[in-house]
Amino acid sequence: MDPLDLARWQFGIITVYHFLFVPITIGLSAIVAGYETAWVRTRNEQWLRLTKFFGKLFLINFAIGVVTGIVQEFQFGMNWSDYSRFVGDIFGAPLAVEGLLAFFLESTFLGLWIFGWDRLSPKLHATCIWLVHLGTLFSAYFILAANSWMQHPVGYSYNPKTGRAELHDFFAVLLNKVQLATFPHVVMGAYMTGAAFVCGIAMWNMLRNEGEVRETFRRGVRTGAAVMLVAGLGVAVTGDISGKIMTEVQPMKMAAAEGLYDTQSNAPLSLLTLGSLNGEHHKAIVEVPGLLSFLGTGSFNGEIKGINQLRAEYKATYGKDPGQKYYSPGDYTPMIPVTYWSFRIMIGLGLLAAAIGLLMLLVTRRGRAPTGKWWVRGAVVLPFLPVFANSFGWIFTEVGRQPWAVFGVMTTAQGVSPSVSAFDVWTSMTLLTLLYAVLAVIEVKLLLTTIKAGLPDDAPPADDSDDIDRPLAFAY
Amino acid sequence: MELTTVWFGLIAVLWIGYFTLEGFDFGVGMLLPILAKDDRERRVMINTIGPVWDGNEVWLLVAGGATFAAFPEWYATLFSGFYLPLLLILLALIVRGVAFEYRAKGHEDQWRNRWDACIVVGSFLPSLLWGVAFANILRGVPIDADKEYTGGFFNLLNPYALLGGVTIVLLFLTHGAIYIALKTDGPIRARARELGLKTGLGAAVAAVLFLLWTQILTGNVGSAVFYILAAAALVAGLAALLKAREGWAFIGTFVCIALAVAGLFVALFPDVMPSSTSSLYNLTTSNASSTHYTLTVMTIVAVIMTPIVLAYQSWTYWVFRKRISVQHIPQERLEAPVG
User: Fold this and answer.
1) pLDDT class for B336, splitting at 50, 70, 90?
2) With contacts defined as CB-CB under 8 Å, which chain B residues touch A74?
3) Which residues contact A379 (CB under 8 A, 6 or more apart)?
4) How far is CA B278 from CA A63, A241, A294, A348, B281, in A?
5) Do A476 and B50 make contact, defined as CB atoms within 8 angstroms?
C-alpha cells in the first residue's frame, strides 16, 4: 500500500474508534447530570445511587475518549500536512476554539466532580457535571463546524497568491447550513447512545435484582428509555433535514446512498439488494417506491440525480484545471457498496434501538417487571446498537464525500503528508491499532466488572468537614 | 504590534502553561516508584495530581490547536516532520491517561504494577521528547523550499537535543518532588524534599549547560536575560527548599520553567522553525501564519476565554489545596477482581 492508502486507513481506524466513546460521553454526562440534579432537588437516594453507578461507568468511558482524542488533535499535521497547509486558515480556528472553550471546561470540571464530593455543596457539585456536559456540547459544535466546512465549504475564498483557502467570514463557517443540521443530528444521536447505554445496563441489573435495588434500576430503565425515544425522534427529524441539505450540496452522496445510477423522479429506496451494486446487476428485493425522492427532496415525486449524470456534471465542473493549485481530474464516484450499506445499517440500527427502548418502557410501566431471557438479551444488545449506528453514519458521510477532502476544492489524495513515508504510517497504524485493541479489551472488562458490582451503597456525603484526618470522599 | 507577533507570544504562553503545569504532574508520575514506599503512598502521590492532571494536559491540546489556527505551516511542518517522536509522545500520553483512572479499579499487585509502569513511562517519555523536540526546533532542522522536513528520525537525536531532553526530565523531576513536598504530609513529604534537592542540583547543572549552549547557538540579549533570571529562580527555589519553605520552592521551579521556555521563544523569534538547509527556507511568524482576519477572530476568542480559563483552573487548585497523607486515603471496598 502507498502512504496515501495507509494514511486513509489509519485516519479511519483511529477516528471511528475515538467516536465509539464520544457519543457515550456526551449522552451519559447529560443523564448523570440529570440524575444528580434529581437527587439535589428531591433528596431521594435512588437518584444519588444511580448518579454514582453511572458516574463510574461514565469515567471509565471518558478516560478512553479523552486519550484517543489527543491523537485527533495532532493527526492533521502528522498525516495530512498538505491538507493542513491548505485549510489551516479556516479549519484550525474551530479546533483551537474547541480546545479553549470546551476541553478546559470538560477536564477541569470533571476533576472537580470526581474528587469534589466532600469539598463542594451538592448544588455546586451538580453544576460541575452540567458544565462538563456543556463542554462536550461546545466540543461537538466546533469540531462539527470544521467537518461541515469540509462537506460544504463556505465563508472563504481561494487565494492564488498563497495557494490556499482563506477565511473571510467566521460566522458563515459556524452557521453553515450543513452544520445547523449536522450538530443537532449528532448530538441527538449521542443522547440516544447515552440513553441506550443507561437503559440496557439498568434493565440487565433490574432483571437480576430484587427490592430496593430493583426499584432503583427501574428508574434507570424508564429514564433511559424515555430519553432514548425523545432523542430518537430528534435523530429522525434532523436526519431528514440533513438528507435534504445533502441532496442539495452533495447530490452524489444521496445517489450513492441508494446506488441510483440514473436520474429518476419518484426514486425508490431499496431495503435489501442482491448483486454488486455496480449499476448493472443491481437487483432490489424489497423496495419502497418514492422513498429516496422523499428523503432527498421532501416529495415522493421529487427528482434525484443519478450517479452517471452527476459524474458527467462533476467532470464538467471540476475536471479541468480551474487555475487553482488543487483541482481534481478523475472519477467522482465514492465506493458505492460502502455508502449503500452503511446508510442502511445506520438507519436500521437506530430504528431497532428505538423499538427495543419502546418495548422496555412498556414492560416496566406501573411497577411491572418482566422476566425471561429475551429481555436479558435485549438489554445486552441495546447499548451497542446506537454506538454502531453512529459509526456507520460517519462512514457513510465521509466515504460518500470521496474523492474530496474538502468538497469541490481539495481531494483527499492532495492532502496527504509528502514527508511521511509508508514505513512511518505502517509503524503508527500498527502501534495505535494494537494499543487501541488492548484498551478496548480492558475497557470492556472494567465496564462489565462495574456493571456486575451493581449499585454503590453510599450514604450521602457526611458533613464532618472539621475532622482534618477524615479520609477523602473519593480517591484513586 | 503585528498580530502574528501577538500569536507567537500566545503560543509561547500556552507552552509555558503546559510545561509549568504538566511539568509537575509528569514529575510526580516519574517519581512514583522512587518516592513511595508502598501502595498507599503511591496512592497519596497519584491523588495529589488526580483532580488536575487532565486540565494541565489540555494546555498541550490548545497549544497544538492554536498553532494549527495561527501558524498552519508551522503545525504542518512540525508534526509531519517530527512524526515518530510525536507518535511516541501520543502513545505515552494515551497509556498514562487511562492508567490514572484504571489503576484504581483493581487491587491485585500485578494490575497496579502494570499501570504504575504506564504512568512512569508515560510521564518520562513525553518529558524527554518534548525537550528533544524543542531543542531541535531551536537548533534548526533540514527544511526544504516546500517547507517540508527532509531529515530522518535519527537526525533529531543529536547531543544538543538529548541534553535538552535530559534537562527537561531533571527539571520536571525537581518540580514534581517539590509539588509532592508541598501537597503531602508525613514521611513522604520529608523524602520528597530531600530528593528534590538532589535532582534540583542535577537540574541546575543540566539547565546551565543547556541554556549556555542554546545561548551560543541562537541567543540574543533578550534570551540571555530570561535564562539568567530562570537560573536565579531555580537557585532561589532550591534555597527555599533547603529551608523547608515548600511554597516558595514550588514558585521557584515554576518561575524557572516559565522563564526558560519564554527565553527559548525569545531566541526563536521571528522564526518559528529555522531551516538548517538554508535560512531562505526558515519558517517565520510571517511566512507560516494565517491571514489577518483569522488571527483577529482568534485574538478576540483568546482575550475573552483565557482569563476565564485561568480563573476556574486556579479555583480548582484552591478547592484541592489541602495536603494529603496516608490517613486520607480511604480503605478500599473490595469489588470483584478484574484483569
Assistant:
1) very low
2) 64, 79, 86, 90
3) A199, A200, A201, A203, A204, A207, A360
4) 44, 53, 60, 58, 6
5) yes
Query: Cα–Cα distance between B124 and B88 in angstroms, integer?
Result: 11
B contacts of A92 (beta carbons < 8 Å): 65, 67-70, 72, 75, 290, 294
Cross-strand partners of B208: none
Q: What's phi and psi for A166, nearest 5 deg?
A: -125, 140
Which residues have C-beta within 8 Å of that of residue B206, sequence separation ≥ 6? B163, B166, B167, B170, B171
Alpha helices in B142-287 (DSSP H): 159-183, 187-218, 221-242, 246-268
What's the pLDDT score for residue A327?
46
Alpha helices in A101-210 (DSSP H): 104-115, 122-151, 170-174, 177-207
The DSSP 8-state label assigned to residue B327 in this structure reads G
pLDDT band at residue A314, thresholds of 50, 70 and 90? confident
pLDDT at A266 > cutoff 90? no
Q: Which residues pair with A158 in a beta bridge?
A: A165
Q: Which candidate, B116, B94, B336, places its Cα nearest to that of A440?
A: B94
Reported as a single tens digit per residue, the pLDDT across B249-262 is 999 999 999 999 99
* Segment 317-376 of chain A within 8 Å of chain B by CB: none
Q: Which residues contact A445 (CB under 8 A, 6 or more apart)?
A: B338, B339
> If you ran DSSP here, which 8-state letter would residue B333 be given?
P
- Closest residue of chain B to A162, computed from CA coordinates: B287
| Predicted ipTM of the assembly | 0.92
For residue B72 the three cell numbers come to 498552519
Q: How many CA atoms lie within 13 A of B230 on its CB side?
A: 27
What is the CB-side half-sphere exposure of residue A48 using CA atoms within 13 A?
17
Task: Please give the grid coordinates belonging to residue B316.
Answer: 480548582
Task: Return the residue matching grid coordinates 477524615.
Answer: A470
Report the helix count and the strand count for chain A, using DSSP H and E: 16, 8
Query: What percent of chain A stands above pLDDT 90?
Result: 70
Asked if B148's CB is within 8 angstroms of A88's CB, the reply is no
Handedness of CA B61, B63, B66, B68 (dihedral sign): negative
What is the rounded CA–CA span in Å between residue A449 and residue A57?
A: 10
Exposure string (b/e) for B15-30, b if CB count within 10 Å is 16 or more? bbbbbbbbbbbbbbbb
In whole angstroms, what is the distance from residue A235 CA to residue A229 CA?
10
Measured CA to CA, the distance from residue B44 to residue B188 in angstroms comes to 9
Nearest one of A256, A281, A285 to A270, comparing CA atoms? A285
What is the H or E stretch that residue B10 is in? helix B3-35
Of chain B residues 32-91, which have a CB less than 8 A from chain A?
Answer: 43, 46-47, 50-52, 54-55, 57-58, 60-62, 64-73, 75-81, 83-84, 86-87, 90-91
Phi-psi region of B184 (alpha: psi -120 to 50; beta: other; left: phi over 0): beta
pLDDT of residue B339: 43
Taking residues B277-306, what's their average pLDDT? 94
Distance of CA B30 to the CA centre of its chain: 13
Nearest to A418 by CA among A146, A84, A151: A84
Cell readout for A175 is 452557521
Phi and psi, residue B123, nearest 5°: -95, -35
pLDDT at A321 over 80: no
Residue A311 CB contacts under 8 Å (≥ 6 apart), including other chains = A331, A332, A333
The overall average pLDDT reported for chain A is 90
Max alpha carbon distance in chain A (Å)?
Answer: 79
Contacts of A52 (CB under 8 A, 6+ apart): A455, A456, A458
The string of pLDDT tens digits covering residues A424-448 is 999 999 999 999 999 999 999 999 9
Where residue A396 falls among pLDDT bands split at 50, 70, 90? Answer: very high
Range B208-224 average pLDDT: 93
